[in-house]
Specification:
3 helices; five-stranded antiparallel beta sheet; 5 strands; alpha+beta
């Protein structure tokens, strides 16, 4: 009986050491996935703008996707995965929620801009928030700040992500 208690105690000690490391590794994977998703959104936004210059950047993220089989048009561009475009049906993707807004063309390049964000769903799913604008640079909140970047101008003031 004592031997069984010792074995259980050893297993619990190993679990206490391993679980925090597993959670940190999962958060690092979520952060990497969010950076990749932000890159996909940037590429999709520019692709949409190039395909529909008379429209400009799409008003929402959902326009960049489309349900399979996807037929490209103004409302469903089929440029990014639909699970990312629909923000995972409201649940996000890999522990992050994504959003993007664009301004339609009004005959002036000044009005052609977009702003995208990637925000952890909680402090257990990611370590920082991401944003990007029409300059295609992914920027980061300081480590530990998981609040959504509030605006286009706030995004421009953050530190660019190192590639």
């Amino acid at each position: 009986m004592i031997e069984l208690l010792i074995v259980i105690a050893i297993i619990l000690i190993i679990a206490a050491i391993a679980i925090p490391n597993l959670l940190r590794a999962r958060m690092a994977a979520n952060d990497s996935s969010a950076a990749g998703s932000m890159h996909s959104i940037n590429v999709g936004e520019v692709g949409y703008f190039a395909t529909y210059p008379e429209v400009g950047f799409p008003g929402t993220l959902s326009v960049l996707g489309g349900v399979d089989p996807c037929t490209p048009n103004l409302a469903t561009a089929c440029l990014i995965d639909n699970s990312l475009a629909s923000n995972g049906g409201g649940l996000g993707k890999s522990g992050y929620s994504f959003a993007a807004t664009g301004s339609a063309s009004a005959g002036s390049t000044y009005n052609d801009m977009f702003y995208a964000t990637g925000t952890p769903n909680s402090d257990l799913t990611g370590t920082r928030a991401y944003c990007s604008t029409d300059d295609m640079v992914i920027r980061l909140q300081p480590a530990g700040d998981i609040n959504q970047v509030g605006s286009y101008s706030s995004c421009l003031q953050l530190t660019p992500m190192n590639n």
